[in-house]
Amino acid sequence: MAHDRTVTGGCACGQLTFRAQGEPKRVGLCHCMTCRKISGAPFNAFVIYPVDQVTITGEVRTWSATPETERCFCPVCGSQVFDRDAVDEIEIKLGAFDEPSLFTPTYEAWTKRRETWLCTPDLKSFPENRGDIP
What we know:
Elements: E1 6-10, E2 17-21, E3 26-30, H1 33-39, E4 44-50, E5 54-57, E6 61-66, E7 69-73, E8 80-85, E9 89-93, E10 107-109, E11 124-125
Parallel strand pairs: 3-10, 10-11
Antiparallel strand pairs: 1-2, 2-5, 3-4, 4-9, 6-7, 7-8, 8-9
């Protein structure tokens, strides 16, 4: 993948958009209760970029489940588009990208909360947080 690659996406109504440049740091799945509740799905699929590689356009509303994470969503349609954390990373939801199949997860976190019917045999799995994956 080229370092000059640009990908785009946004919310369901189009008011909140993003442009990410370069390659992401990592791609994963999370089965924690917060991710399950905010997405209304059994897991959250995301890509992590350094915050300086992402440009956000439009109005954003936020809330925080923990002091280190800011959950960001569109105030018009309510779409969960991305999260920001205290480590200067931005977590963009895979479903918010304009194109499907751009990224493939390589790990999953909080597998102790994973649905028993969900099988992810090719991913590195962590019972709780991801540990030391860069």
